[in-house]
Amino acid sequence: MSEQTLSNLSREERRFEPPADLAADANVKEEAYARADSDREAFWADAADRLDWGQKWDQVLDWSNPPFAKWFVGGTINAAVNCVDRHVDAGNGDKVAIHWVGEPDDDTRDITYAQLKDEVSKAANALTDLGVKKGDRVAIYMPMIPEVVVAMLACARLGAPHTVVFGGFSADALASRITDCDAKVVITSDGGYRRGAASALKPAVDEAVEKTAGPDGQSQVRHVLVVRRTGQDVDWDDDRDVWWHEAVDNASADHEAEMHDSEHPLFVMYTSGSTGKPKGILHTTGGYLTGTSFTHWEVFDLKDDDVYWCTADVGWITGHSYMVYGPLANGATQVMYEGTPEKGRWWQIVQDYQVSIFYTAPTAIRTFMKQGREIPDGYDMSSLRLLGSVGEPINPEAYVWYREVIGGDRCPVVDTWWQTETGQIMISPLPGVTAGKPGSAMKGLPGVGADVVDDDGQSVPDGSGGYLVLTQPWPAMLRTLWGDDQRFKDTYWSRYPKQGFYFAGDGAKKDEDGDLWMLGRVDDVMNVSGHRLSTTEIESALVSHPKVAEAAVVGAADETTGQAVCAFVILRESAGDGGPDIVEELRKHVQKEIGAIAKPRQIMVVPELPKTRSGKIMRRLLKDVAEHREVGDVTTLADSTVMDLIKDKEGSGA
Ligand code: WT7
């Protein structure tokens, strides 16, 4: 979003007060801000007290060796026990944990907390039989089926950190993640349903495992545990592959869980950074579970009889924090849907399951806006009482449409800013407190230090813009990058060493009231449909194609997806003009290297790229071209005629 649109945005004057009944009965009230300010650690200790601990902690926060934080030091806890066993023990075993809705119509399952406990215990026993021990890493590559939740919780139960890889990622992407965290077991399924058709997953796992083989031909992956979902044919390695329905269904439902150290690794989630190599974000147990469960209860004002639905895929952090760990630790009843947004289907589900809290991304809202309000208007959505948004800035039009059309003008909208790294929601309105402004994430939650600063780390005055920073450690913060402490320090903590701020990589502005407006990334990270993609990673994928000499990728504004991937490539001389299908060939290549989400919307074959005298590609100028704008200042280019060559190309429609 440009500065220009932003100053228009923050002049937005509509305000939406919290509904009176919600405000009166809100889980978190105004006083929480002051309480957290007066004693931040005591505030988070209260949040941690909502969970069941084996051993209570001795120290809330150890920040003696920044940026390496330890939360609830000396405490022991088991995330799976908190997500299932304790609800059963409290007499809520019959409460539905998951209303699962499969993609094929009529394929549904309701799973109670008691059933979930049995499944998780069985899976933990089955994984133990496969040799998984505390500390071993397990990769999970699955569609949105209940078994993926069971698999994650079984790993958590054993203390075997999982790394869930989004099912839309390629075999190559899966292989690099398996290698980076040295996973011993992969859990997958034969396939899943995507847009009505069965699509395979197991072949990508076979290919990935093959790629991870060392010089001796042996991969570190000892077993692949496979859920039968679609029934499609799969290749089978008798020594390595195991069917879930054989291993798990036959395992005992008794499993004694060990309490793990509060700082025991819970999972690694890979996300794109500003270099080509994805970063393995490490989250640990006690702090993460505290941060996610508390904010889920706070921001969504969760009540015992709510039906909650987060539409995110489990392969992203939103799925981890606000579909698996947060809601389940809170004993919530939730909907889990296997499919992707389709006309009317979501609203049918809201109506059928009486969903009361709904959490989705702006890109989906904009898609529904385009389809027209007649579709949602055809359903009874009066069960809804609260709406959430996440993943990218929500433009005021989409916010107001969401509020009016989906929320019947009665549900508050919480625009929640956070990141894979933060683990938990950091900036958001409180639904019972804040008068929401369409397009603003408002301010840091109680206990969170969020500010906008200039290059020197000085807090900017109201009405100005700068960089978003987090000024205080928080429970669910990432602890490091898997196997790379140095990159962890460099990426997040080196920008403001004096102040010790966490650098989020986002631009932001304070309006006249001091409320925050997010401006998007300030680094080489794009946000496509709320998914984070690295320009550099896509550039490396393009350059790995034999016909490509050089590539530059930019995120161009897109009405539906927020940003879209636009690539500019220079071909090798040996490739000539690349042939008639060069663009499609390169798009497919990116899909194979990374996954379909990274496939460029547009690829332009150009003779040159705009570079500074020191050889740095000026993506800003390419962005101007991709967004059909007048090209900006070219005076720092080594060769100022380059942009004319590129624009000629664009004009010719190449
Ligand atoms: C980046 C983090 C948080 C889970 C999903 C994405 C952008 C996220 C918002 C929001 C404006 C947002 C930021 C952030 N972002 N939520 N409410 N308003 N921008 O997680 O893949 O780690 O991406 O998403 O740019 O840095 P992620």
Automatic annotation (TrEMBL):
Domain AMP-dependent synthetase/ligase residue range list: 90-474
Domain of life: Bacteria
Family statement drawn from the similarity comment of this UniProt entry: Belongs to the ATP-dependent AMP-binding enzyme family.
GO cellular component, as recorded: cytosol
Protein's name according to its UniProt entry: Acetyl-coenzyme A synthetase
Reactions it catalyzes: acetate + ATP + CoA = acetyl-CoA + AMP + diphosphate
Annotated ranges, domain Acetyl-coenzyme A synthetase N-terminal: 30-83
The entry's keywords: Acetylation, ATP-binding, Ligase, Magnesium, Metal-binding, Nucleotide-binding
Pfam families, per database record: ACAS_N, AMP-binding, AMP-binding_C
Record domain AMP-binding enzyme C-terminal: where: 537-616
Enzyme Commission designation: 6.2.1.1
Cofactor needs: Mg(2+)
Matching InterPro entries: Ac_CoA_lig (IPR011904), ACAS_N (IPR032387), AMP-bd_C (IPR025110), AMP-bd_C_sf (IPR045851), AMP-binding_CS (IPR020845), AMP-dep_synth/lig_dom (IPR000873), ANL_N_sf (IPR042099)
Organism in which the protein naturally occurs: Nocardioides glacieisoli
Binding site for Mg(2+): V543, H545, V548
GO biological process: acetyl-CoA biosynthetic process from acetate
